[in-house]
Description:
By secondary structure, the chain is α/β, with parallel strands linked by helices. It contains twelve helices and seven strands. The strands form two sheets. A five-stranded mixed beta sheet has the order 4-3-1-5-6. A two-stranded antiparallel sheet has the order 2-7.
Amino acid sequence: MSQMIYPMNHSDRSSSDRSLSETAQQNGDASGRDTMTAQAALRIALAARQLPGIDVRALLGLLIQHLSAPLSEEKLLKLSPKAFRLMVSSIQGGPGRKETGNAYAVLTQTQPEAEPPRIKAVEPLAAPKLYAAVTSNQGEMIDGHYGSCLNILVYEVNRDSYQLIDIRPVERHLQGEVRSQKLLELIHDCQILFTLSIGGPAAAKVTRADVHPIKRATPTEAGEVMTELSQVICNSPPPWLRKQLGLPPDFSAWLSDDAEAI
Length: 262
């Protein structure tokens, strides 16, 4: 639960993602060809993290052999699942099918054939409650990176339950500061943001908007995380979460009042 209830360390995450993408770009430069785009480098770096035994350099080499340099997002998006599986399997002792699928999803940001999430007509949950945003690319998964996700899912969460209340598509053509501002608008009414990855500058903007960014190390079912969040609210939310819920300073008194009501 510890990775859920504490806001992320922006500097650590920023340094990690930046280092990976810079490694990818530097190796692209070392090939003696035109430099790949920054977004392509980030996708490759993050995809490599999903592949045990395959580092950024190895993945970059495979992609250049298959797609030719310079690599770009457009080329990555045209890569088929079968071609990617064959590329990865060419490395002896390579990752399994699940890891390969996760890496492909990160690399191409494509949506597998899955039922899109649906919003049911339900009554609002009782307060105190939170609104949690999720960066998602497929179904009700936390599997999107903040800067390039396809959808923002919004959940209403209290101590007893949670429910999906909104699906906010992110326009893919938006880039740079325009995209950054749009993402902030999409999460402006939320208190928490669950994401697979977020850079330091973006995380700082999200925090200034009074939204706590919390990273997940691997793609995770949103329902699993919302259940954990609901349990934290019910049992003993940390001070920052207590403040977001509007709970009184004397949290034990709130628990006692609730117990008497039951």
